[in-house]
Amino acid sequence: MDSILVTGGAELRGDIPIAGAKNACLTLMPATLLTDGPLTLTNAPRLSDIQTMTVLLQSLGAEVQALQDGRVLALSSHALTSQRAEYDIVRKMRASILVLGPLLARYGQAEVSLPGGCAIGARPVDLHLNGLEALGAKLDLRDGYVHASAPKGLKGGTIEFPFVSVGATENVLMAATLAKGTTVLKNAAREPEIVDLARCLRAMGAQIEGEGTATITVEGVDTLNGATHQVVTDRIELGTYMLAPAICGGQVECLGGKRALLEVFCDKLEEAGISIEETPRGLKVARKNGRINAVDVETAPFPGFPTDLQAQMMALLCTANGKSTLHENIFENRFMHAPELMRMGAEIDVHGGTATVTGVERLRGAPVMATDLRASVSLILAGLAAEGETMVNRVYHLDRGYERVEEKLSACGASIERVQGS
Questions:
Q1: pTM (2 d.p.)
Q2: DSSP string spanning 210-241?
């Protein structure tokens, strides 16, 4: 397995282009299953998760072509050969469950393996299944697969999610576009990725209102057509690279960034003493003189502080002046990066869903192990600020969500390189 070697101490200066959103693209790609027309996605990120979704769609008989060095995805489901998503593919990525709603809506049947993914908590798919059942689907879980059927088609209904779920909102939203009648999703997720999906589906002919709010209304249509859609900027990659100069000093402009994608996150950085300036090209981020201030963070669904930036924020707070508290409210077991940061000299005390970080003057380089996608990059960020060398091992997680991270950081002056594994 590959590793990432980071030598800390260098300030960062330059531009970092922010890619299209992984989480948005992984949802947009299954939307091709709703139509026999061509779907073209521009601003696509070049990530291993995108390749996994490509393989999954191709296994169903969809055509997927990566054009313009992978920045454009041309998809077509005009001649599907299967409605069964196999375990060997689905187990690699939780987003694979998003083929269930579209397959069921268009073909009246689907068999989808229960998914895998990062080990950051149970993350059950119950809300996906309950939502589809509310639209009239008959579900049977056996042999590790969801066997779903709706031989007379799905029917609109009112679904109130017991708690906010991005994936369930996406799955049911896609299914509802072809359901007969009106579907109302209450307590729906409000993330930018949901808004992006709704815009794409609307371009395909869907009738959707209310995206970006807690209530989304869908009037089902008989068929959808093809469309061309630009994938929204990746707000998690944006936040990650905003933290880079905050951790090790300097000034970086994140090209394509918009504050509206990360308002609460930006507020916390400014509270910590980081300068953020919105420019015509993106967001310019700089660390002011001296140590940053300790701040308290509580993760929450959008528009709150993203859980996918909690690990990276913890890396920043490891050298803050004072004591910070991080409350993780979205996923259990999402502090697995804490012991690795402690190997670098961080002072972190974890109790359940709360981590208390007492800032130290300086971190020290050490060999560390990546436990999940966001933990991977948090250790790289910590390495930028540490004395000496940090070797981040098992970075196959990293390639699922960050495009050429070593190239983007080294272009701004970081001493970082990929070490090829055997």
A1: 0.91
A2: -TTSSEEEEE--S----EEEEPPB-HHHHHHH
